[in-house]
Amino acid sequence: MSTVSRCPVRPDFDPLAPDFLADPFAVMAQLPLAEEPVFYAPAIDYHVVTRYEDVEAVFMDPQTYSAAAAQLPLVALAPEAREILLAGGHRPQPSMVSLDPPAHTRLRRPAARAFSARRVAEMEPRVRAILAGILDGIDPGEPFDLVSTLTFPFPATVVFSFMGVPPADYEQLKAWCGHRAVLGWGRPAPAEQVEHAENMAAYRRYLRDLVAAKADARADDFASALLAIHDEDPEQLSHEEIASILFSLSFAGHETTNYLIGNLVRRLLEDPARWDAVAADPSLIQGAVDETLRHDPSVPTWRRVTTRPATLGGVDLPEGAKLLLWLAAAGRDTAVFDDPGEFDLRRANAKRHLAFGKGIHFCIGSALGRLEAALALEALTDRFPRLRLVPGQELTFSPNLSFRGPQALWVKG
């Protein structure tokens, strides 16, 4: 892709490189972002947008910055993989996060209605019960991996039960979500793409079958609530569109919260005084969640593409320019946050983070994710007030663009 002459080029910037995956903030610190808030990265063929005001402007202007790139594979798909996806009903714009109005509006309105504040509030007892059941299985006298023990199964169980997925299918659905992360946001080789595509097609078939089953056997769950809206006006929301909404939620509703809780606990335990402060004063919990979303977001990047020529961060962009919105960099913008590299439990404006997006695509599940993270921290600090990191461990992270959190985090009570 030819780049605009005014746009700085960073040939060494690669968010899937080992040094970036290990510590993107160290890479960030070496970049002159104040002078170059937008730059082109040939390694991924994206313009990288780093400044808070520019990221915010992109989110608030869907006419100029289309969501169509949000889930595009980072690498060209092998023909066999592409054919498998198309045969399985997986289209280039598969779900709400990658749709623009009016198609986005058609799905968003009924999804938001079914995903009401009341429904989320009513979930709290169930969320607490799921959390307690998981924590009851932990031996407090032994070190344990927080991710495999808690942060991976907990949000998945919550969101799948919310959707109406039978418990026997949770493990399969979690596995499919893993294939989706690599195919949509990683750099898999052609042979790997075929395996991922086959699993994505199966994932899609499962959700269509789930909607069909729920149509005949309703329950008090999200899928049934969407079907009730379909009953009112079948033209407003089709069964295929309900399956598409579930496709969005089944992934976003647990991968992001899994990493959010992992990042939250990691950042608190990096300085034990932070953990001790929260354990002593639970009123700090919500601030800790927001500060984690700003300081180390579980969704550090998102994507857009220009629908017409635009100027952003002093750079002229042509129509069709792909943008990587570096949300983690926006969260450390000194124009918005004082001492942004510091993790401050009492930061007054931590809620200004853009980790959930903004505008018409603001994360529909943000209230549920925040609730789960807050309840998890509340329970952990109550049960393990002296929790500490196991020393000497090397953290690893999934090789994908947009979802970040430790793959394992060993702690001891």
Percentage of residues in DSSP E strands? 5-15%
Shape: globular
Tally the beta strands.
10
What string, H for helix and E for strand, traces the elements in order? HHEEHEHHHEHHHHHHHHEEEEHHEE
What about the largest sheet?
5 strands, mixed
Task: Classify the fold: give the CATH topology.
Answer: Cytochrome p450
Q: Return the CATH class.
A: Mainly Alpha
CATH architecture: Orthogonal Bundle
Can you characterise this structure?
The structure is a single chain. Residues 1-5 have low confidence and may be disordered. Helix content is 50%, strand content 8%. Helix 6 packs across helix 8 (153-163). The protein has a single domain, classed as Orthogonal Bundle (Cytochrome p450), CATH 1.10.630. The protein is of the alpha+beta class and 413 residues long. The protein has 16 helices and ten strands. It starts with 17 loop residues before the first helix and ends with a strand. The strands form three sheets. The chain has a five-stranded mixed β-sheet. It has a three-stranded antiparallel β-sheet with strand order 4-10-9.
Keywords:
globular; 5-stranded mixed beta sheet; 3-stranded antiparallel beta sheet; Cytochrome p450; 413 residues
SSE blueprint:
Layout: H1 18-22, H2 24-29, E1 38-41, E2 46-49, H3 52-59, E3 65-66, H4 79-87, H5 103-114, H6 117-136, E4 144-145, H7 146-151, H8 153-163, H9 170-185, H10 190-216, H11 222-232, H12 239-270, H13 272-280, H14 285-295, E5 301-306, E6 310-312, E7 315-317, E8 322-326, H15 327-330, H16 366-383, E9 388-389, E10 410-412
Parallel strand pairs: 2-8
Antiparallel strand pairs: 1-2, 3-5, 4-10, 5-8, 6-7, 9-10
Helix pairs in contact: 4-10, 6-8, 6-16, 8-12, 9-10, 10-12, 12-13, 12-14, 12-16, 14-16
